[in-house]
Every structure is written in C-alpha cells, then in structure tokens.
Recover the amino acids of this structure.
C-alpha cells in the first residue's frame, strides 16, 4: 500500500474490514481501449483490458480478476482474455501485494486497499454496468473472490470462483449470484474438502449458486470459462 493512501484513515479502516468504497459512476475522463498497465505501483501493479467495441457513455460489464498463489495479473487475465472481445467485457486484473492475497495469511488490508484504488481509477475513466460487476478468481484467487465478493455483495453482482479452497467474509452485504467450478481430480485443493463443503454452506445461507464439477485437475478448462461467462452475461 502506498504511503499516500495510508494517510487517509477511513479507507485504511474500510480495507482492513474487507470493504471497498469504489462504485460505478459517470466517468470524469476517457481512457484508451486495449491492454494497458494500471500504473498504480512501480513493482506489483496490474492490467486493464478494454475491448475495441467500448463506446464512452455506454455501460459495459466489468470483471475483476484475481490470480492464484505465486501468480500475477497476467496469469489472472487468462481465463477470460480470449473471450473479452466477443462478450464485450472490461477486464481488470491486479497483482496481490505479496505472493498471495492478504486474507490467506491473516486478514484483509493491503490487497483490499489496492483493489479499491484500481476500481476507483477504472470507474473514473469508463462507463460500467452496475448490474454486471463480477469478481473472479482461481485457486487462492477464488478463495479471495468469495471472501471479498460476499463482503462487498453491494458492489459485486456476481462472484466467479474457479477451484476455491475456503471463504472468510468479514461481513455479508447484498445478494450476489455465485458460480463455482471445481475439478474432481484436483490434488491441490481437493474438491471433497473445498467446493463440496462451500457450495452447501452458501446455498443454506440463501445464495443463488451455480455449481459445476468437471473431470480434471487444478485448472480452468476453456469450456468452463465459456460456461462462466455465459452465466455472467445473462440478464439479471
């Protein structure tokens, strides 16, 4: 987290609770299309991809994409990058501040604050459809997507979790729809103690959960990415 951001106590406190303040709004500027670095950090930063079909003033769906442990924003883009132009999606992928997401090792804080800055920058430059704002992740990123997505269900309309391990929301806000997919041959995060435990918990809590099991290891098959985006792009 940058020194400038730490000077403001309110965002820091919100970040430590896992809360995001950024919200879609009429943009005050105009940003370019294509793949671009965020420019928010000299080291671990992130990428934004805006398809050529984007028209200023016409809201477009947004997916915040979270990589697995040891990965980076480039890895995070992989599941949906080949489909963004076809589906008309803006993709925002950020680097975790450390080797994985903050809450995996303890609590929310630096990663939530950085994600909030990235969202604020994106919302300030592009028109985003508030009914289609998703957080997506793979592996540790999926665990983080569930955790931050449930905590901020008043921002995220959808949560997409590929092979999650657990969830630790600090609070539950809103009623996001949830898509979970997991490989039955996963040896990294075995399905029996992960998604097969998480999905019933979420359904008992009243969430609308779409759940897919596939015959495969710890990965995101292209067909599963297509299924997830078809689900996300449906009308609310």
């Amino acid at each position: 987290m940058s020194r400038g951001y730490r000077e403001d106590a309110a965002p820091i406190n919100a970040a430590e609770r896992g809360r995001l303040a950024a919200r879609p709004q009429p943009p005050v500027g105009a940003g370019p299309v294509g793949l671009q670095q965020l420019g928010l950090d000299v080291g671990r930063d992130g990428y934004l991809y805006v398809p050529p079909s984007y028209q200023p003033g016409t809201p477009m769906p947004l997916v915040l994409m979270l990589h697995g442990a040891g990965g980076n924003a480039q890895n995070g883009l992989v599941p949906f990058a080949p489909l963004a132009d076809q589906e008309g999606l803006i993709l925002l992928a950020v680097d975790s501040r450390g080797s994985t997401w903050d809450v995996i090792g303890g609590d929310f804080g630096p990663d939530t604050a950085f994600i909030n800055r990235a969202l604020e920058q994106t919302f300030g430059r592009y028109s985003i459809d508030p009914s289609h704002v998703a957080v997506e992740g793979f592996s540790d990123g999926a665990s983080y997507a569930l955790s931050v997505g449930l905590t901020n269900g008043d921002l995220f309309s959808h949560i997409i979790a590929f092979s999650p391990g657990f969830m630790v929301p600090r609070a539950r806000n809103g009623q996001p729809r949830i898509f979970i997919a997991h490989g039955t041959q996963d040896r990294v995060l075995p399905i029996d103690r992960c998604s097969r435990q998480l999905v019933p918990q979420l359904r008992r809590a009243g969430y609308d959960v779409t759940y897919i099991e596939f015959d495969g290891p710890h990965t995101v098959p292209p067909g599963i990415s297509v299924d997830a985006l078809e689900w996300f792009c449906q009308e609310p």
